[in-house]
Design a protein that fits this description.
By secondary structure, the chain is mostly helical. Helix content is about 65%, strand content about 0%. It is built from eight helices and no strands.
């Protein structure tokens, strides 16, 4: 129960810190944007959020905060499969709590609901709901490849002989870079709990990502996590044999 609570809290902080920055602060100040974080700032916010969550809650639960990461760690033999369902539920619940808090805050502004379009309320999407108008195939490829690389980084920096204490910083840097690459493509998910956390509150709408696109942001990260775990296991075994 303590591990699940830590996963919920960590995912809550990741969604609130990352998506909250995108919703509340990315364009603060209007078109001239004198106060806004902008594209780079939101990318860094996601990295800082996951790094601080990992420092705070990682010692308790391992610091997954992402169903695709938990799945990939299980495939890689780093995480017991019997705990996978509970972790996924805890992560989704934590994300939804953050999404609910953000929705309560943002809808207090009567002007918010008059706007819409790709990426509104930090939603992910493809086609008309991609910030850059990228099609489903590109969105799937980007989410899968970037999740695979993310999983490889996580596995590398958490291996037994890795530098102690450096893992959260490396993972945070990797997530920030992933956002720098893919915000224009899908608004960046690589985390099904993060996507669900915001999509659940906008539902089916012509103004926001429709719920029927959410499947891609579960399937592609999980496919990527599977590929990343298998690639890492193959490369790691090759190194072990060479040594």
């Amino acid at each position: 129960m303590k591990k699940c609570a830590a996963e919920s809290l960590g995912t809550f902080w990741l969604v609130l810190g990352g998506c909250g920055s995108a919703v509340f602060a990315a364009q603060a100040g209007g078109d001239s944007n004198p106060l806004g974080l902008g594209y780079l700032g939101v990318s860094l916010a996601f990295g800082v959020a996951v790094a601080t969550a990992a420092f705070a809650f990682g010692p308790v639960s391992g610091g997954h905060f992402n169903p695709a990461v938990s799945f990939g760690l299980w495939i890689a033999g780093r995480f017991p499969g019997r705990h996978l369902p509970a972790y996924v539920v805890a992560q989704v619940v934590g994300g939804l709590l953050a999404g609910a808090l953000m929705w309560v805050i943002v809808t207090a502004n009567p002007d918010f609901l008059s706007f819409g379009g790709a990426g509104t309320f930090a939603t992910n999407g493809f086609g008309n709901f991609s910030p850059g108008g990228y099609p489903m195939e590109v969105a799937f490829l980007a989410e899968a490849v970037l999740t695979a690389v993310f999983l490889c980084v996580i596995l590398a920096v958490t291996r037994p002989r890795a530098t102690a204490g450096a893992a959260p910083l490396a993972i945070g840097a990797a997530l920030a870079l992933i956002h720098m690459i893919s915000i224009p493509l899908t608004n960046t998910s690589v985390n099904p709990a993060r996507s669900t956390a915001v999509a659940a509150f906008v539902g089916e709408s012509a103004a926001y990502m429709p719920m029927h696109q959410l499947w891609l942001f579960w399937l592609a990260p999980c496919v990527g996590a599977l590929a990343g775990a298998l690639v890492y296991r193959y490369v790691n075994s090759e190194r072990a044999e060479a040594a």
